Amino acid sequence: MIRLFTSPMCQYCHKTKELLKEKKAKYTEIDVTKNPNAIKEIIELTGQTGVPVIVIGKETILGFDKSAIEKALKKAS
């Protein structure tokens, strides 16, 4: 299961969604601007409030890190 924490104005969030779609990875998008509990969760996960935050299996990736995302996708499959 992949969870993607985003905000509408975040360029790197859009890049992350494009990469996940390109890799045909199914994900659940959580818009932090519409879900105040999501902010609390990403602070717990990363200690920060920045997005995107990508949770792939047990891996948590802060920011758009293409190689880390691809590596986590391979590990999860």
Entry summary:
This protein has 77 residues and is of the alpha+beta class. Helices cover 44% and strands 22% of the residues. The protein has helices spanning 11-22, 36-46, 66-76; strands at residues 2-6, 28-31, 53-56, 59-62.
Would you mind describing this structure in some detail?
This protein is an alpha+beta fold and 77 residues long. It has a single domain (10-66), classed as Glutaredoxin (3-Layer(aba) Sandwich), CATH 3.40.30. 44% of the residues lie in helices and 22% in strands. The protein has helices at residues 11-22, 36-46, 66-76, and strands at residues 2-6, 28-31, 53-56, 59-62. The protein has a four-stranded mixed sheet, with helices on both faces. Helix 1 links the parallel strand 1 and strand 2. The chain is globular, with a radius of gyration of 11 Å. The termini are close together. The mean pLDDT is 96.
Per the CATH scheme, the topology name is: Glutaredoxin
Specify the helix fraction band.
40-55%
- Note poorly predicted spans: none
Distance between the termini: 10 Å
How many independent structural domains? 1
> If strands are numbered along the chain, what order do they take across the biggest sheet?
2-1-3-4
Report strand %.
15-25%
Question: What is the CATH H-level superfamily?
Answer: Glutaredoxin
Biggest sheet architecture: 4 strands, mixed
> Which structural class do you get from the secondary structure elements?
alpha+beta
Following the backbone from N to C, one meets helices and strands in this order, namely EHEHEEH
CATH architecture: 3-Layer(aba) Sandwich
Give the beta-strand count. 4
Overall mean pLDDT = 96
